[in-house]
Amino acid sequence: MKVLEKFRDPAIARTLIKEVQASAARLTERLGRRAVLMEVCGTHTVAISRAGLRSLLGDYVDLRSGPGCPVCVTDYADVDRMVAFARLPGVTVGTFGDMVRVPGSESSLERERAGGADVRIFYSPADAVTWAAEHPGRETVFLGVGFETTAPAVALSIKEARARGVKNFSVFVTHKLVPPAMEALLSDPELRIDGFILPGHVSAIIGRRAYTFLERYNLPAVITGFETNDILDAIREILRMMLNDERRVVNGYTRVVREEGNKIAQQQMAEVFAVCDASWRGFGVIPQSGMRMRPEFSAFDAAERFALPPVTARVPAGCACGEILKGKLTPRDCRLFAKVCNPTQPVGPCMVSSEGACAAYYQFERHAL
Ligand code: SF4
Q: Using CA atoms, how far apart are residues 173 and 155, in angstroms rounded to an integer?
């Protein structure tokens, strides 16, 4: 724990805040507006809200949340397909916890479970393989949701199922890649982002090198950890680079992230999944931003194994999740926020997921309204 002390030290935090405020004030004078910085990681979204950094720094920098919550970016149609899997007779749907309550067009996995469907939360995809092996009379469909962080474990589970001959296990793959979504944001003429606070967990897998495309956009970015002082230090560094006309991708999380990332995890993903176009909530299809099963593992591809009815996804009326995930709006801009929509009765996924921007604002920032 000692190693983390300086990242939690309030005295260091106070110094960092003063430095951020001073740099940001100079930058505001130069730009004629506040600098817009975006985090693309749900854990950062929560950490920023919990530490109250938006209130502390709001007069100086515009901190926006982007598409960093894996559950939130899962497309409406994919949520409806997950519900359709749960409705198939003899099928157990296995998932990570947050996905259960995400509303689809007509239902959610939670509602299907209340109606008798077998929907189970597994803490790891390997547990789902074991469960499938112990229940050969049922088909187990695991929901492969998440970014580069969860995909390696899901890839491993597929290999494990093949090695153990567990034929009643399959995966519905909706995994997504963070860098293409960032490029989609930067290509949007309605958005102005001055710098990125880059994710810690995803970067541990893909490495600093995966972000060198940002140089084409002449944008500063810092990979950082999740302690308050990590985040403040990243903001200070981005502002410093802006003031000095430097545009680099800095690894500020060297205690975890390497230049090349985790090559073993990358290999596991590449062995089982191929990169493909994918549809993201709020964005539509982003080229080369998702993963699909490679043909040699198609026996474990739930989308191929089961014939699902066609889905017609409907966006919940009034829900602004899509625009919030692109950083165009904040939860406070949604007229349903904290009135109709709250964590007990969520309208959209950003209020369901523990990493969703709406849930974070609701828990930590709604009284600052
Ligand atoms: S507050 Fe609720 S309805 Fe509004 S954007 Fe967030 S999740 Fe959607």
A: 10
